[in-house]
């Protein structure tokens, strides 16, 4: 199975992201847009795993969730990763020490279990769409969309399976570990 580690979003946050996505979609001639149900924050893509590896990943998130307090993330701005004439469009987050620490602890624990360290810098973002061809300049779109400083409480980490159901890409939580309830 193909898995990644993520922070799942509430339905209210998914609805907010969907509204922003629709504005981007209205300024696009093509693109592969994330379904509303699949909005999440990827902490680490793992890839194909066997059952025994899944148990290792459960141990890892159990360990990093131990004594972890809940925290808040805040949405900040629309961003892009250019890919030739197409783009990945995303919403980024405000700088967050707790999120950075969670990611760092996760990377350290993954390395302890012999997963190679991620080579790219951690840029926390929520992908709205891939392979997007915009009908106007990105900065014009970015400036026309006001990103509310929406806050969301992060109180768990999930192992998500990426699979296809009826031809549709679907992300399914297969193991969820709650943090402490303090804030």
UniProtKB/TrEMBL annotation:
<dbReference type="InterPro" id="IPR004175">
    <property type="entry name" value="RNA_CPDase"/>
</dbReference>
<feature type="active site" description="Proton donor">
    <location>
        <position position="40"/>
    </location>
</feature>
<protein>
    <recommendedName>
        <fullName>RNA 2',3'-cyclic phosphodiesterase</fullName>
        <ecNumber>3.1.4.58</ecNumber>
    </recommendedName>
</protein>
<feature type="short sequence motif" description="HXTX 2">
    <location>
        <begin position="125"/>
        <end position="128"/>
    </location>
</feature>
<feature type="active site" description="Proton acceptor">
    <location>
        <position position="125"/>
    </location>
</feature>
<dbReference type="InterPro" id="IPR009097">
    <property type="entry name" value="Cyclic_Pdiesterase"/>
</dbReference>
<comment type="similarity">
    <text>Belongs to the 2H phosphoesterase superfamily. ThpR family.</text>
</comment>
<comment type="function">
    <text>Hydrolyzes RNA 2',3'-cyclic phosphodiester to an RNA 2'-phosphomonoester.</text>
</comment>
<dbReference type="Pfam" id="PF13563">
    <property type="entry name" value="2_5_RNA_ligase2"/>
</dbReference>
<keyword id="KW-0378">Hydrolase</keyword>
<feature type="short sequence motif" description="HXTX 1">
    <location>
        <begin position="40"/>
        <end position="43"/>
    </location>
</feature>
